[in-house]
Amino acid sequence: MLKHVVVASAALALAGCGGRAMIESDMSRAVSASPSSPWLTVDNPGARVLTVAGLESKEKVQVTPDIASVVEARLRTALQPKYFTDLIINCRGLEVLVGAKADAEPPSLDIDMAIDCRIVARGLIAAKSYRLHESRKLDTASPRLDVAVPTLIDAASADLAERLWTDVLGTGVKR
Question: What whole-number distance in Å separates Cα of residue 94 and Cα of residue 65?
């Protein structure tokens, strides 16, 4: 009996020391619903966990399937209707940081995304680095990071799609 009490006490002590569970954020539906677009790729698969700093404790949000796949799916959905033959967009070096500003008025959750993209539009080439920032109001009592983080990824991806399309047109290609 004493052994069970000691094990239970140890488990509770570890849980009190920040042994919080990973917050799951499943975005696989958005990825599976996006069109197939071999002309648009976002390299850097594998990164799945985002650490959210700025709250009472650092929280970890695991994005499924992975962040690059989600960004690629969002770009495909936004840009597929605008596609023309001989257009290739390849992005790499995706970096994503998420942080909370709990002391700000109003409190916010911010995402900063950086990525390098190369556009080949009918032989015309453009290479550009993109820096994106999105912010969302944060309820510090119930931050709901499983919903807030995907919302920020969507918003940053939509902004990236707009900027990419502007740069596609900026190459001077005739559609």
Answer: 15
Right CATH for 22-170 from 2.60.40, 3.30.160, 3.30.9, 3.40.50: 3.30.160
Inter-CA distances, 102 with 49, 55, 107, 110, Å: 21, 6, 5, 11
Place of tokens 């559609």: 175
Give pairs for 133-137: CB < 8 Å, separation 24+. 134/110, 134/159, 135/108, 135/109, 135/110, 135/111, 136/108, 136/109, 136/110, 137/106, 137/107, 137/108, 137/109
Whole-structure pTM value: 0.85
For residue 24, CA distances in Å to 21, 95, 111, 145 come to: 9, 20, 17, 9
Task: Provide CB contacts within 8 A for 7, sequence distance 6+.
Answer: none
- Identify any residues that bridge with 135 across adjacent strands, giving them in sequence order: 110
Q: What is the pLDDT of residues 9-38, one digit of tens each?
A: 333 333 444 445 799 999 999 899 999 889
Q: What pLDDT digit, counting tens, does each position of 87-144 carry? A: 999 999 999 999 999 999 999 999 999 999 999 999 999 999 999 999 999 998 899 9
User: What are the tokens at 101?
Assistant: 């500003």
Residues 161, 168 contacting (CB under 8 angstroms)? no
DSSP classification of residue 103: T
